[in-house]
Amino acid sequence: MMKVTICIGSSCHLKGSKQIIEKLQALVAENNLKDKVDLAGKFCMGNCAEGVCVSIGEQVFSVQPDTVQTFFNDEILAKA
């Protein structure tokens, strides 16, 4: 099971974490990955500089609402 954690702290919330969560939920469902991908929210993950902080295991990514699709394709779909 791949655990994907999305920051829902105030800074990331302002940068679009809600939209990112909704899009990732839709993409996981569309690609029938509900049994392979576990989406979770977490308050401040301490990496607020760029976009919304998203981690897969120990790897940390900076995702923006307009880069969710690319992130999903490259980091989740390709490895699930």
Task: Give a structural overview.
The protein is an alpha+beta fold and 80 residues long. Helices cover 36% and strands 28% of the residues. It has helices spanning 10-14, 17-30, 68-77, and strands at 2-7, 37-42, 52-56, 59-63. It is globular, with a radius of gyration of 11 Å.
Strand-helix topology:
Layout lengths: L1 E6 L2 H5 L2 H14 L6 E6 L9 E5 L2 E5 L4 H10 L3
Parallel strand pairs: 1-2
Antiparallel strand pairs: 1-3, 3-4
Elements, N to C (H/E): EHHEEEH
CATH fold description: Glutaredoxin
Main sheet properties:
4 strands, mixed
CATH superfamily: Glutaredoxin
Tell me briefly what this model is.
The protein is α+β, with helices and mostly antiparallel strands. Helix content is 36%, strand content 28%.
Attribute tags:
80 residues, alpha+beta, Glutaredoxin, four-stranded mixed beta sheet, 3 helices, 4 strands, 28% strand
